[in-house]
């Protein structure tokens, strides 16, 4: 049992540049077994993101963590977060405020997923996005290599106005393709959010559920006043900052559900 979120260092991770979709970023890889692409949350590959990554490795997955922003291994701080957000707000590859838009960074992430699928066992790969990158995990599922998407607190586009609140973080054509693949049983998705997290509006999950139906599972954790876990109303990071290593913690249980989902979808051995 712990009182803080799991963390880990960069030790044991293999770093190599990867080029795809017109971009080149470093990727960190570790593990063996079916592949999972873990897209970091703001401000980057923090010790908490590495804690989740190492947990997935221990559960029998080959994990690749791209580094499209931030300084890998650096702990989060208010200044670091604000500096990263400022950069993402103006970066054309992320299109932080655009509704109904294709985001060029997802071309890169699709290339990462396709490469990982070609050299790991299982029927495709899983993709996990968190916070600003949460919705990217579903946009990447346009690629046939992706069998499972996990959207943890998807906060892009920033939910200013009703259109952005309802936006699924991809273009209509991409959304059509993902829905088509979901209808055919080729991809399924999980969405996770805290009940009081205004940066991740329920309307976004409603938009996705309307198109994906039973292929989209929603997990909402209670962060209302007086909730059993003691989560603050501002709780945000379901799979990293709010996890405590004991089964009574609902974020812990959500993380275990994600592992089970990935195993089932990728045909990984338990």
Automatic annotation (TrEMBL):
Gene3D superfamilies: alpha/beta hydrolase. It comes from the Bacteria. PANTHER family: ALPHA_BETA-HYDROLASES SUPERFAMILY PROTEIN, CARBOXYMETHYLENEBUTENOLIDASE-RELATED. Pfam families: DLH. InterPro entries: AB_hydrolase_fold, Dienelactn_hydro, Dienelactone_hydrolase-like. Keywords: Hydrolase. It comes from Okibacterium fritillariae. Residues 32-263 form the Dienelactone hydrolase domain. Coiled coil: none annotated. This is Dienelactone hydrolase. GO terms for molecular function: hydrolase activity. The keyword Hydrolase applies.
């Amino acid at each position: 049992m712990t009182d803080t979120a799991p963390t880990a260092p960069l030790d044991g991770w293999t770093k190599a540049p990867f080029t795809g979709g017109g971009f080149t970023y470093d990727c960190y890889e570790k593990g063996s077994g079916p592949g999972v692409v873990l897209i970091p949350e703001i401000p980057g590959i923090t010790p908490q993101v590495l804690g989740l990554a190492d947990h997935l490795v221990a559960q029998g997955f080959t994990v690749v963590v791209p580094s499209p922003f931030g300084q890998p291994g650096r702990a989060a701080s208010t200044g670091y977060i604000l500096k990263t957000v400022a950069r993402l707000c103006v970066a054309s590859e992320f299109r932080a405020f655009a509704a109904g838009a294709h985001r060029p960074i997802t071309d890169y992430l699709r290339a990462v997923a396709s490469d990982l699928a070609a050299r790991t066992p299982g029927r495709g790969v899983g993709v996990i996005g968190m916070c600003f990158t949460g919705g990217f995990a579903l946009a990447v599922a346009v690629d046939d290599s992706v069998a499972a998407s996990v959207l943890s607190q998807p906060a892009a586009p920033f939910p200013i106005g009703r259109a952005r609140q309802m936006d699924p973080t991809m273009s209509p054509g991409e959304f059509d393709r993902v829905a088509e693949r979901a209808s055919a049983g080729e991809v399924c998705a999980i969405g996770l959010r805290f009940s009081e997290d205004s940066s991740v509006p329920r309307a976004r999950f409603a938009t996705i559920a309307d198109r994906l139906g039973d292929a989209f599972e929603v997990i909402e954790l209670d962060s209302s006043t007086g909730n059993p876990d003691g989560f603050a109303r501002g709780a945000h990071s379901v799979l990293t900052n709010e996890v405590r290593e004991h089964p009574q913690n609902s974020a812990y249980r959500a993380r275990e559900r994600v592992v089970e989902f990935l195993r089932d979808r990728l045909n990984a051995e338990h």
